[in-house]
Amino acid sequence: MTRDEARALDDADPLAAMRDRFALPSDVIYLDGNSLGPLTHASRAAVADCAERQWGDRLIRSWNEGWIDAPVRLGAKLAPLLGAAAHEVIVGDTTSANLFKALVAALRLDPARRVVVSELGNFPTDLHIAEGAVACVPGAELRAVPRADLEAALGDDTAVLMLTHVHYKTAERFDLGPWTARAHAAGALMLWDLSHSVGAVPLALDDAHADLAVGCTYKYLNGGPGAPAFLYVADRWQHRLESPLSGWMGHAEPFAFTDRYRPAPGMKRWLVGTPPMLSMAALEPALDLWAEVDQAAVASKGAALFDILLAAGEAASLPCITPTDPAARGSHISFRHPHAYALAQALIERGVIGDFRDPDILRFGLTPLYLSHEDAWRAGELLRQTVAAEPWLGPRFATRLAVT
Amino acid sequence: MTRDEARALDDADPLAAMRDRFALPSDVIYLDGNSLGPLTHASRAAVADCAERQWGDRLIRSWNEGWIDAPVRLGAKLAPLLGAAAHEVIVGDTTSANLFKALVAALRLDPARRVVVSELGNFPTDLHIAEGAVACVPGAELRAVPRADLEAALGDDTAVLMLTHVHYKTAERFDLGPWTARAHAAGALMLWDLSHSVGAVPLALDDAHADLAVGCTYKYLNGGPGAPAFLYVADRWQHRLESPLSGWMGHAEPFAFTDRYRPAPGMKRWLVGTPPMLSMAALEPALDLWAEVDQAAVASKGAALFDILLAAGEAASLPCITPTDPAARGSHISFRHPHAYALAQALIERGVIGDFRDPDILRFGLTPLYLSHEDAWRAGELLRQTVAAEPWLGPRFATRLAVT
Predict the structure, then answer these.
(1) What is the pTM of this model?
(2) CATH 3.90.1150.10, domain A3-39+294-397, yes or no
(3) In chain A, N or C terminus with fewer CB closer than 10 Å?
């Protein structure tokens, strides 16, 4: 593809106008929206309003003027992106904390089923939190196996199959419906981690009969650094599952100030403590943006951006570890390179922000709301040139930063 | 006291200049800083910088430019207010989540000690979370008793005594050292909830040999709505206690992305998921403010503000349920009134923001950093007038809001 061909695609792009909603720096091609989505102008305004008017002027009164309902309100706004009903989603805490709540609740349903099945190489916090969750339920254990052994690992001892829908390294995507059906066939619940899926690929949790899901809002949803996460509990489970983190915000009557815990009906029982409102404020308009977005256009543009980067990687002789079938992947592309860390740093110096994942993965997020085809073409060209200049990747890129 | 006498106290007030650091509305006397502290100009600027420069311009790079260390850095800034060493405090999650972590960890230390002792009428989330925590440890139970029975409730089955240092309704204060010693005499750990203490009264956790403490930062510390909470673990326990919420941010090497959880050394092991950075950003300068504050001046001004409100309450024949001995209380004053809810609402209409607590408590926070003696005098005068006009408290104040 030539630059002119990329520009022609941009001219016909129905999502092109969305770029203006984002406050991206002009000297950067941002291919890390799968790690931290960028700031929207609306989120910037919402944060300022939350600080100055809601907190500064309205003070404590703001709890009655929108804050207290924010977890439920934001959950309802997120629900369409998950293929869920509005009352099945709540926003709050971290993905890790929500995983813990969901896992412990699922493990307590049936004393004969005390195994969490998951995948080795899953995003670490999923496995780490599962270790913590099984330690809270007598007899429970975590069975983490390679992907090829997952189905065989399910059995009549399985409480829950916990999978990350889109893999954070390779972008490989599980087929949501069939894997949910496999869990159910074994008598287990299905818990999806959608951190790398929501806003990246179409989701239909209700149609797939999924039971539980969690995910983060600071990647493709552009909610801001450490934005509150979400939890989905299918309607049919809402009165049967209870949170082990039985904090006052999940009480049926939090302001009755009673000694005994009594879980709220519906999704509110999954709340724990007071939500971080400035971070919630940033997230809300970022969710609102999606009401204007055609998901089919996102999917088709995402595939076009992928193809541009894939061609650049091929030109640079970089092996791609992401499936080339759009239906089998999320919305990032990953290459292997023996000096992937140094390469990522060198690209950042040239204005292309992607990221590195241990040990040798160079990862680029493909985010159709704010990346143009020309952006992808330029990034690909810089990738090709940088790899070609490899001897130039000298010792100053040898020190790893804490987060890349 | 007359208005002129109050003004004379203000003229001699060494804390008077601190008022200018706060963005308080001019038409309000804010006596609810014990529920939500007000915005400082520095926090407003920090939030804008976090949104616009750190998130908007620096994007993912900000994780390496201050974000990743924020929980530890803010913990170190908070430590002096707790009488703790910098490495004993971490900022993150909610008070409720931190209580859960601390309680489960303490309950796992010794199989012969599986009882959490606490007080009936404690702030609800403490008891609710304790219910959740004991359900995660086989054989564990919560023993909640009236204050008078606390000492007798301690025994050789007690893992931890969990007390809220300053009571959220009455402001009654436990004596930190002697109660910690009582827990230790029974062989139990001492866990303090300092939500209504920190920034309100001097604290000396290390001197008292406390083991664990939690608390919130959005009250007297002015960290912002739902600002991240804190956790204190005494140095001697740091390598012996582990968090049940074993999320990736608490891993020894979070970016090595390993399958098995291995807790970080020191306080980082208590981290769970990605922290909400906009809310962290607001908190940091609010903590910095305290480095300029003389704690003795805060205590003595707090006592003077208390006396002004107490006199007004007496003039209005309102029974005060807060101890009149400054050493026996926190920094709020509570009165009983059969129509306390309507009275609180009527005062808000007159520009005096205090709050109501079920069933009949009218509560005023006394915050020497931004309240003048004249503010207290005016609030007292409006309280007296409003009570005198009681028939005027009509049906439009009968509907309770969700949060007051």
Answers:
(1) 0.96
(2) yes
(3) N
